[in-house]
Amino acid sequence: MNTKTPEAQPIAKKRLDYKAPNFTITDIDLDFDLAPEITTVTARSRVVQKNQQASDLILDGEDLKLISINIDEQPWHDYQITKTGLIIHNVPTEFTLTIVNEIKPINNTALEGLYVSGEALCTQCEAEGFRHITYYLDRPDVLARFSTRITANKQRYPYLLSNGNRIAQGELADGHHWVQWQDPFPKPAYLFALVAGDFDILKDQFITQSKRKVDLEIYVDKGNLDRSHWAMTSLKNAMRWDETRFGLEYDLDIFMIVAVDFFNMGAMENKGLNIFNSKYVLAKPQTATDDDYLGIEGVIGHEYFHNWTGNRVTCRDWFQLSLKEGLTVFRDQEFSADMGSRAVKRIEDVKLLRTVQFAEDASPMSHPIRPEQVIEMNNFYTVTVYEKGAEVIRMMHTLLGEDKFQAGMKLYFKRHDGSAATCDDFVAAMQDASGIDLTQFKLWYSQSGTPELTVTDNYDEKNQQYTLTVEQYTPATQDQNQKQALHIPLDIELYQHDGKVITLQYQGQPIHHVLNLTQSTQQFIFDNVTEKPIISLLRDFSAPVKLTYDYQDNDLIFLMQQATNAFSRYDAAQMLLAKYVRLNVKNYQENQKLALPDSVLDAFRAVLLSENTDPFLIAQILTLPSENELANLFTVVDPIAIHEVRLFLLTQFANELYDELLAVYHHNNTSQYQIKHNDIAKRSLKNCCLTLLAYADDNSRANTLVSQQYHQANNMTDCLAALNVAVKAELDCRTELLVNFDDKWHQDGLVMDKWLALNATSPDKNVLATVKKLLTHRSFTLSNPNRIRALIGAFVNNNPVAFHAKDGSGYQFLVEILTELNQKNPQVAARLIDPLIRLKRYDEKRQQQMRKALEDLLKIENLSKDLFEKISKALEA
Ligand code: TRP
Ligand code: ZN
C-alpha cells in the first residue's frame, strides 16, 4: 500500500523524552568492499533485547540501498523500510543480525557518512552519520565492540585505516588487498572511522607514564610531510600534559591522525583514528601564521583529550553534548594556557565568547548549554555548547579549586568509565568529591541567556567600611521567558590609589576574593578599608556575564596599568574604549563631531611603552575590538556608525601615538622565524603597531613599511599581517600585493583561504562584486567547506557594513548561495545563515529585508532540516 501523505514538517526531539533503548548491540563486525562509486557494507551485529515489551527492532538508516537481512544466518523477510530507517519485526531476544547494503560515497556532498575527499575515502559519523553507512542503533548510549575489515584496490588505496589495532591483512588476486582492525573499547557508532587512500606518513613514538609504548602516525597528502611536524609536536605535548595535569594516560598501542581537505568542522575524535580538517594539521612557516600554529596545538589537544572526556566516558544522548565538549574545550584551553601565555589565551577565549556566544544568546537560536529541544543535532555544535559550556566547567573549577576539581574528575571516571553519562552525572561527581553544594549552580545547564551584573558601591569613611551591592538579572531569551538567580562566582580585588592591594576582611575574618552570588541582590561589606578603593571586578572573567559598574576614566586607566590580573588590565582597556565607542556612535548618528580625550590616548601610550609587560598582552590591549564585538554594546546595531567610529579611533591612535608605534615596531623585529612564545609575542606586537600606523592621516610611510615587510618576510605571519593591513587601511600597495599573493599561492587551498577572506572583508565599496567574481576564481570551489567559509563566511560574518548594505544586496547574495548549498551541504549552509537570523538586532528597514530573504529561503524545495530549524525560529521571533 502506498498512501501519499503531504510533506511533514520536521519535528523537534525533546530532552525530557529520553528513553533507554529497547535493544542494544554488544559487538559488530563490519566488512567494507570499498569503491567510490559503490561500496558494499556487511554488518554482523550481536543484538540483545533490553525491554521485554519490544518485539520490533527499529534501526536508523538513510540513503542506503538494502541488499539483504539475515537473522542467525537465515534470510529474514519480516521487515519494513521507512524514510528514516528499517523496522525488523518479531525478532528473537538475542541474535546475530547480518545486514548487507550499498552506499555511493562519490555522491555524498554533505560530507556526512562515507565520502570522497580528494583522492581518499573517509568517514564522519558524529553526530548521526553512521546511519548513512549502514542500518544501526545510531545513538550514543548503544556501545559495541567494533571490528572492521576493509577491502579495496591496493594501488589506489594503499592505506586502509580504522579504529583500534591492526590485527590482520592480506592480498587478493585482483589487485585488491584487505586489512582487519579491532577496537577493544566498546564505543557508540559516532566514534567509528574509516580512511582509505595514499598518504605520506610521519611516524613517532610516545612512552606513557606507565612506560607503555604508543606508535604515533600522522597521515597527510603526498608531498605535505614537511608540514606535519608541528602537529606531531603538539600531539606529544598533549599526551604528556594530560598525564601530568589530569593523570590520564593513552590506552591503545597506536594513535593515528589523518588530515583531509574536505571536512565540515575542525576535527573529529574517532577512537584511535582522529580525522582532521587539514587546516588543523598542516603548517610550515612559509604557509601558516602564528595563529594557525596555535590553532593546531589547540585542536590536536582537543581531539586527543576527547579520548577520556568523550570516548571512555561518552554522552547518554545528544542533549548532553556539552558533557564532552564543554569539558574538553576547558581542557584544551588549559593545555594551551600551560604551553604558552595563560593571560593571552584567556583574553582570546573571552573575546570569542563575548563576540559570538553573547550574540547567539541574543538570537533566535538561544539555548542553554544543555539544549531542551532539537530538530537537527548538527545545529547544536554551537559556541554556547562548546565555549559557554567550557565557562561553566571553569566556574566549577573556580568554586572547587584545582585539587577538589581533580578529585571530582577522578570520581567521574571511577563511576562512568566505559559508559554513557549525563551532565547531571558530571556535576554529581564534582559535588560528591568536593563536598560543595552545586544544586543552584546546576541552573547554568538549563538556563539560557547572558546574565547582567549591576554593581554599585559605597565607601563609609567614618567606619572605614566599603559596601558592594550586586544585582543579577538575566533578560528573557527567545527560548525561555522566566529566569532565575544563578550561582555566580565573582572574583574581585580592591586597590588603594598607590597600587597596594587591600586585604579583604569582615569583622576580623578574611574574605575570599571569589564572592558567591546566589540571589538577585546581594551586599558584601569589607572592613578596615582606609580609603575609597578602586575595584577590579570579574577578574579573569570569572563568569560568562555582562558587567555594569560606573567606572570613572581614571579608575580604568589605573586598572590598565596596575591590576595584578592581566585579564583585568585588558578588560579595563575594553571598558574604557566601550565608553567612547558608545558616545561616538551617538555623536555620529546625531551628526556631531567625534572625539577622544587625550587622557585615554595617554593611557594606551603608557601600556605601549611599559617595559615590564608581556608584548603579547600589550598587543592584545592595543588591538581595537572588532566591529562584531562592538556590535554587542548595542541593542540595535548600526553597522556603518560602528565602522566609522572604529575607523576614527584607529586614526586617533595612529596620529597621536605615531612615533611610539614606529619605535616599538622596529624594536620587535625577530630575524629568524621560530615557534617560541616570546617570538610569537614580539611578532604580534610588531604587527599590531604596523596595523595602527597604516591608519595615520599621512600613510605614505606605512605604505612603504607594509610593502617592504610583505616582500621581505620569510614567514606567513609577517607576510599576511602586511597584506591584511594593506587591504583594511586601503593602502596604495594593496592591489600589487594582492596580485602577487594570488600568483604565488593559487595552487595552495589553505593559503588561498587567507587571501579569499581578505578580499571578502575589504572596506572597498565594490566588495560584493569582488566576492561574486571570486566564486569563479581558479582557487575557489563551492564543494570545499574551507573555501566557502573563507570567502562567503568571511563576507557575511566579518564584513557587516557590506553584508548589511541598505539595498539588501548582501542578504540577496546569501539567499542565492544558500539555495545552492541547501542540498549540497546542509551543515555548512546552516552555519552560514547565522548572521541573517539575527534580524531583531537591526533597524526596521534592514529587518524587513532580512525577513524577506528568510521567507524566500523557506520556499526552497526540499529545504534541509538544518536550515528549516533556524529559519523557522527566526521568523517566529
Ligand atoms: N566532536 C567534534 C569536536 O568537537 C566535532 C565534530 C567534528 C562534528 N565533525 C563534526 C560535529 C561533524 C558535527 C558534525 O571535536
Ligand atoms: Zn570536541
TrEMBL record:
State where it is primarily located.
Answer: membrane
This protein's membrane topology, according to the annotation, is:
Peripheral membrane protein
Q: Which GO terms describe its molecular function?
A: alanyl aminopeptidase activity; metallopeptidase activity; zinc ion binding
Q: Which parts of the sequence belong to the Peptidase M1 alanyl aminopeptidase Ig-like fold domain?
A: 449-550
According to UniProt, the reaction catalysed is: Release of an N-terminal amino acid, Xaa-|-Yaa- from a peptide, amide or arylamide. Xaa is preferably Ala, but may be most amino acids including Pro (slow action). When a terminal hydrophobic residue is followed by a prolyl residue, the two may be released as an intact Xaa-Pro dipeptide
Cellular compartments annotated: Cell inner membrane
Q: Which GO terms describe its biological process?
A: proteolysis
* EC number(s) stated in the UniProt entry for this protein: 3.4.11.2
Aminopeptidase N-like N-terminal domain location is 29-191
Domain Peptidase M1 alanyl aminopeptidase C-terminal residues, every copy: 553-876
Write down the InterPro entries for this protein, in alphabetical order.
Answer: Aminopeptidase_N-like_N, Aminopeptidase_N-like_N_sf, PepN_Ig-like_sf, Peptidase_M1, Peptidase_M1_dom, Peptidase_M1_pepN, Peptidase_M1_pepN_C, Peptidase_M1_pepN_C_sf
| Keyword Electron transport attributed | no
Where does the Peptidase M1 membrane alanine aminopeptidase domain lie?
A: 230-441
Instruction: Supply the alphabetized keyword list.
Output: Aminopeptidase, Cell inner membrane, Cell membrane, Hydrolase, Membrane, Metal-binding, Metalloprotease, Protease, Zinc
Required co-factors: Zn(2+)
Q: Name one GO cellular component term.
A: plasma membrane
What does it do?
A: Aminopeptidase N is involved in the degradation of intracellular peptides generated by protein breakdown during normal growth as well as in response to nutrient starvation.
The entry's family comment says: Belongs to the peptidase M1 family.
Record's protein name: Aminopeptidase N
Specify the taxonomic lineage.
Bacteria, Pseudomonadati, Pseudomonadota, Gammaproteobacteria, Orbales
